[in-house]
Amino acid sequence: MSLIGDEVRVRPHRHRAAATAVEKVRAAAGAAVAAGAIIGTASQVAPALAYAAPLLPGGGEKEAAEPESAPPVAEEIAQPAEQPAAAHVAAPAPAPVQAAEIAAPAPVAAPFGLSNLPPEVAAPLAHAEQTLKQLHQQFAPAPVVRPVAGMVSSSYGSRWGAMHYGIDFADALGAPIKSVADGTVIEAGPASGFGMWVRVLHDDGTTGVYGHVNDIYVAEGQRVQAGDVIATVGNRGQSTGPHLHLEIWDQGGNKIDPMTWMASKGVPLEWGPSH
Q: Which of 60, 185, 189, 192 has the smallest C-beta neighbourhood within 10 Å, fewest atoms?
């Protein structure tokens, strides 16, 4: 009975065997991983990765080293096995690679005026936009307009024993002169014989020459559209009165009849005032 009594008295103190060192290491590692996963989830910078962060290897490794963030039980048992637990959790983390894959590349184009598009969307849209522009230029060429409202007073061809390489429009001094077609200004300023001129390289490769102008409103390199006012009618240079002298040069620089060229673009010109 004395032996039984002793057994009863000491049993509450020996009811459960003491945890071995290996078990403590395992418990510490498990607690560290669990705490690190919880804290690592909240520290993710990308909202799209918030749910995936606890699954990444070593996702909570940095946070496991901060005792104030871990649960109390993990703090107590992780102390004697700090180095083994860190060795058990450490693993090559693929997080930087995944972040690089998820980050959206900078857009490469802004087709149809749409900016901030990813390359896989912007590239085909830009190709489609270019194709549409080519089709538009082929089947619906840019418009051509009459340069001034004044009447045609002299035509292309021989005149007074010399070749007249353009057509003249008689108009009031200071009347607006419009670019006959879309293009780029290649020269604007003084010119021999014309006093002042403006030359516009059209998109079709021809060149429009506007002579005897009084005021110039454009500069070299400036982009103009058909109908834009580029100058005013003047009486400079070799001139007998205010008028516009218009020449059209083809792609090779040869001077062609402006009346024929404009008629081919849908703008017939006749002697007399415009209608």
A: 192
Q: Provide the pLDDT for residue 126.
A: 85
The pLDDT of residue 38: 43
DSSP one-letter string for 94-159: -HHHHHHHHSPPPP---GGG--S--HHHHHHHHHHHHHHHHHHHHHSPPP---S-SSEEEE-SEEE
pLDDT at 141: 62
**Would you state the pLDDT for residue 28?**
47
Q: Packing angle between helix 82-89 and helix 21-42, nearest 10 degrees?
A: 60
Q: In this structure, what token pair is assigned to residue 209?
A: 């020459």
Write out residues in the chain with pLDDT < 50, as ranges. Answer: 1, 4, 7-8, 10, 12-15, 25, 28-29, 31-39, 41-56, 59-89, 97, 99-107, 274-275
- How deeply is 219 buried, as exposed, middle or buried, from its count of CB atoms within 10 A (0-12, 13-18, 19+)? exposed
User: Buried (b) or exposed (e) across 202-216, using 16+ Cβ within 10 A?
Assistant: bebebbbbbbbbbeb
Please name the helix (run of DSSP H) or strand (run of DSSP E) that holds residue 38, with its range, or none. Answer: helix 21-42
DSSP 8-class letter at 5: H
- Written as one letter, the residue type at 27 is A
Q: How many CB atoms are closer than 10 A to CB 123?
A: 15
- pLDDT, residue 26, reads 58
> Residue type at 225?
Q
**Side chain identity at 86, as an amino acid letter?**
A
* φ and ψ at residue 115, rounded to 5 degrees: -100, 170
Strand 213-216's sheet: what is its strand order? Answer: 176-178, 229-233, 213-216
In whole angstroms, what is the distance from residue 127 CA to residue 122 CA? 9
Which residues partner with 249 through β-bridges? 207, 255
Nearest to residue 205, comparing CAs of 243, 167, 252?
252
Give the Cα separation of 3 and 154 in Å (integer).
140
